[in-house]
Design goal:
The complex is a heterodimer of chains A (310) and B (326). By secondary structure, chain A is an alpha/beta fold. Chain A has 10 helices and 12 strands. Classes of the chains: A alpha/beta (310), B alpha/beta (326). Strand 4 of chain A pairs antiparallel with strand 9 of chain B.
Chain lengths: 310, 326
């Protein structure tokens, strides 16, 4: 179980606005992999994929939602769930003393999110689904109680409304600062998926860079269909932990590696994800989907408890 | 020598004194006899004092003690007619997991346990108690078998974690663990998990989704071994003691925050001071919990298990949402 820190994509200035089509200040970005200098506008048009080497940069949760679902169909739920500091965890090193609670504050301010996952419901090609999209920027996308709770609620929402569930993972694994509470989120999310499975509602798992540790060893690997973006780090043990304990440098354990070893169904380019998910939803839920899309469209019209996110 | 841990140094000294006096046997002078009695009393008093206040890091050392009883020790002391079953029917047999049916009191149960090794050769054979994917798949296979024949499942947890090799990645360590979490959460027979030594990470949880989670008094259960956590948090495993304290991984601390159901007492100085007494305590706890769980209809058993894990976690509700940036 590992929370690996990965290098953020190198931009020439630190704060790229999450969305706006216009680059503010920085006009070029350097590819993390092939070091090619890319024009930001073209890079963004290419869905933040390197035009030269096809390297898929990390996306924020909202960028991914925009990429995947029908415009204006996303309704965010449980955005107000936040982490607390159940163990009064304090990180003491030579240079600094930092309480987990203050780290949480810092991260929310820095990232502009309450937690490392965004959940809600949306439509893909007019088919409704419940979704949980992780965001690596928030403490390495690590799973503590709040992340576990939000993901479990997203699964339960799918169960209740009889709609497919999509979880996009981007995580270093369990969150050390919440100790055993974090570990138990693996059991909690998996148990919810087992209930979903009993109800024969499909669950699609999308692995993005990176998917490691306790997240891989729970919901990420439990999809009825498991897809991954090209070149994503997908493993149980992060390379840093393997290196420190086994004293060898491991090879790249990525999407292509796990596909080759039979652990996932397909590696899908970012630009094809939406189409692929739409096809899968149609294939897996002929009955549910059609009935639901009509019913659900009505429900949304009626419901006032749901807060539109867009 | 019974006391050989760093924090047991004062105890070891007393013990040496007692042993040297005892060696004299009948030739003890009256004042030496008094010294012996005093030393024995003092040893008892000091060890009670030390063991009552073990820190998390000290508990880690007891939980890893080289003489601590392992699963097969308990199985031999508690059960009759344990028949070990082997293999995952797909790749190989993993010796870090021992499993099979046995009789516990009057009950027929399925045992699924981590197994560590004591000497060098056995350690290698048991892979330090760190299972490969095939170990978890064997565990899953036999839990399904238990469901088929209506045996309750008893899991003894004692692992630093799942093995972290390249082969394990190739054969799907993550999938093997995840599949067990999924399976156990809906398995239609009672499941009791007991951490008897080290409960390390996903490798422990993979046989730990249970109706009751018990822990021996001086065992630990953690999201990642202190060394690994230290390496993740502070990039160096020398901070393991700090990580152990910060994450509150000892059985007592976990009971205090209700993450586990029950503590099983160990003899003074730890389980390795008296195997059979520990085994008796373990057996008694298992039988009581089994009897309670077997009263429940299956539907209720599963719903309670679901709710047990559903409710684990502490989170807050923010007064206003930050995520409106979109």
């Amino acid at each position: 179980m590992a929370k690996e820190a990965a290098d953020p994509p190198t931009t020439t200035s630190s704060n790229t606005p999450a969305k706006s089509g216009l680059p503010s200040g920085n006009l070029v970005v350097k590819c993390t992999k092939c070091k090619e200098i890319l024009i930001v506008r073209e890079w963004e048009k290419n869905l933040k994929v390197c035009t030269r080497c096809n390297f898929h940069f990390k996306l924020t949760a909202y960028e991914r939602i925009e990429l995947l679902v029908d415009p204006e169909s996303f309704v965010e739920l449980d955005a107000d769930i936040v982490s607390v500091d159940p163990l009064h965890f304090v990180s003491r090193t030579k240079d600094e003393v930092q309480a987990y609670s203050s780290k949480l504050d810092d991260e929310s301010k820095k990232v502009g999110l309450n937690e490392a996952v965004v959940v809600g419901h949306a439509m893909i090609e007019q088919l409704p689904l419940s979704l949980a999209i992780m965001d690596f920027r928030f403490i390495g996308g690590s799973m503590g109680s709040a992340v576990g709770e939000k993901i479990t609620r997203a699964i339960e929402f799918g169960l209740e409304k009889c709609m497919p569930v999509l979880i996009a993972s981007a995580s270093g694994g369990a969150r050390m600062q919440e100790g055993l509470y974090s570990l138990m989120q693996m059991a909690k999310t998996s148990a919810a998926l087992a209930k979903l499975g009993e109800a024969k509602i499909p669950y699609f798992s999308l692995l993005t860079d990176p998917t490691t540790g306790g997240v891989t060893a729970s919901f990420a690997m439990l999809g009825d269909v498991i897809l991954a973006e090209p070149g994503a780090l997908v493993c149980f043990t992060g390379p840093r932990v393997i290196e420190q304990f086994m004293h060898v440098k491991p090879p790249e354990i990525n999407s292509e590696f796990v596909l080759q070893h039979g652990m996932i169904d397909a590696v899908v380019h970012r630009r094809d994800l939406r189409q692929t998910l739409a096809r899968l939803m149609q294939l897996f839920t002929p009955g549910i989907v059609q009935r639901n899309s009509q019913e659900f469209a009505q429900q949304i019209g009626e419901s006032d408890g749901l807060r539109p996110g867009i | 020598m019974a006391y050989d841990l760093e924090f047991e140094k004062p105890l070891a000294e007393l013990e040496r004194k007692i042993m040297s006096l005892q060696r004299k046997g009948d030739r003890l002078k009256p004042d030496e006899h008094r010294q012996l009695q005093e030393a024995e009393r003092e040893l008892r008093r000091r060890s009670e004092e030390i063991y009552k206040n073990l820190s998390s890091w000290e508990t880690v050392q007891v939980a890893r003690h080289k003489d601590r009883p392992y699963s097969l020790d308990y199985i031999n002391l508690m059960c009759e007619d344990f028949f070990e079953l082997h293999g995952d029917r797909s790749f190989s047999d993993d010796h870090a997991i021992v499993a099979g049916p046995a009789k516990l009191g009057d009950e027929h149960v399925m045992l699924v346990c981590h197994q560590k090794g004591r000497d060098m050769k056995e350690k290698q054979f048991r892979n330090l108690g760190m299972p490969h994917p095939e170990g978890y798949r064997k565990a899953g296979r036999l839990m399904q078998q238990a469901e088929k024949f209506g045996f309750p499942v008893i899991c003894l947890i004692d692992t630093p974690g799942a093995f972290l090799g390249l082969g394990d990645e190739e054969r799907g360590q993550s999938e093997a663990i995840a599949a067990n979490l999924y399976l156990m959460s809906r398995l239609q027979v009672p499941i009791i998990a007991v951490v008897i030594g080290e409960g390390g990470s996903g490798g422990a949880l993979a046989i730990g989704v249970a109706d009751r989670i018990l822990m021996l008094e001086h065992s630990i259960y953690t999201v990642a071994m202190p060394e690994a956590s230290a390496s993740i948090l502070w990039r160096d495993k020398v901070f393991a003691p700090q990580a152990a304290e910060a994450m509150r991984i000892s059985a007592k601390e976990l009971k205090a925050i209700d993450l586990i159901d029950e503590l099983i007492p160990e003899p003074l100085g730890g389980a390795h001071h008296n195997f059979s007494l520990t085994a008796d305590n373990l057996k008694a706890a298992l039988l009581i919990n089994l009897a309670e769980l077997q009263m429940l209809p299956v539907d209720e058993l599963l719903e309670r298990r679901y709710q047990k894990f559903r409710n684990i976690g502490k989170f807050g509700i923010a007064p206003e949402s930050l995520s409106t940036a979109y």
